[in-house]
Amino acid sequence: MNTQKSNLPAIYRFSSIARPIDPAFLTNRALLIVLPLVMLLSAGLASTHDLGMAPVSAAFSGGLAAFAAWALTRELAPDYNDAAFLALGLAWIANIAFEARLVLLLFVALLLSRLVNRSTGLPLRPLDTLTVFGFCTWAAFNTQQPLILLIASLAFAFDAALKDPLRRHYLAAAACLAVFVWMLFDRTYLLADDLAARDWGLVGLFFGGIFLVTVTSANPVSYCDTSPDRLDRARVNAGLYVGFLVALQALLTNGRSAWLETPIWVSFFAVLFSYAIRFRRIR
Fold it and tell me: Phi-psi region for residue 50, left (φ > 0), alpha (ψ -120 to 50) or beta?
């Protein structure tokens, strides 16, 4: 990318992975309007119904889940603006109705997808690399899901191998793999044993849908944040798979309860639903 550092928005002078919510874009302005309304509605419901949270906590929890799903979906399918807002609404419903309040995995998937698809248009700076590595390591220990580090290793390897490769990320991939192996020594089990055939069937449906998206979608029309270049198709597809693997590893580790512990799956449903609508219109 031929972007001069002095011409970048202020945040990009310090970080290549942070993305500001620029109100100059219609979708971002819509988010800045919708998100406060979601928080107010969450607080109102907590005031009139037993949600197990105080109104302020409900507002924060509902708003955070909605925002995280929106932001993740924007990374998974940059061309699907409608999918991001569908995910926002579904994540809020899941948060209120099913207590899907663990949003940490959404931010893990978001960072790793962004690392791979380079939606900012910039390769990670060394401090960004350390931040992603440290965050994924903390998340793996916090959730007791060591497979997060295996997915992070894959994401770093993708970034080191795809277009405009950042070769030092092979070292980051190796570091993630080393911490993953170290975590295994403290675990008596790695994979859950309560997944039934219908769980695997649902996983297969998600994977099949994602596979169709990646093999049939045209080149992205979305541009990088910091340059006039369009996003790279191989990187966007790889980012979608990495995000899916983050969701899948939680299911493999925690079992069936992982379906409703976190709203991460609504992002993939939103992407596939949006894809199906577009495919039907084309036909």
Answer: beta
Q: What local confidence, expressed as pLDDT, does residue 189 receive?
A: 77
Residue 188 reports pLDDT greater than 90: no
Residue 208 has pLDDT above 50, yes or no: yes
The gap between the terminal CA atoms of the chain, to the nearest Å, is: 36
- Taking 50 as the threshold, does the pLDDT of residue 4 lie above it? no
Q: Which two tokens stand for residue 32?
A: 């800045």
pTM: 0.94
Q: What does the buried/exposed string (b/e) look like for 178-202 if buried means 16 or more CB atoms within 10 Å of the residue's CB?
A: ebbeebeeeeeeeebeebeeebeee
**C-alpha 277: how far from chain center:** 22
Cα-only R_g, the chain: 19
Task: Report the DSSP beta bridge partners of residue 165.
Answer: none
Does residue 3 surpass a pLDDT of 50?
no
Give the sign of the dihedral formed by CA 99, CA 89, CA 119, CA 231: positive
CA distances to 90, 94, 105, 207 from 198, in Å: 22, 20, 23, 14
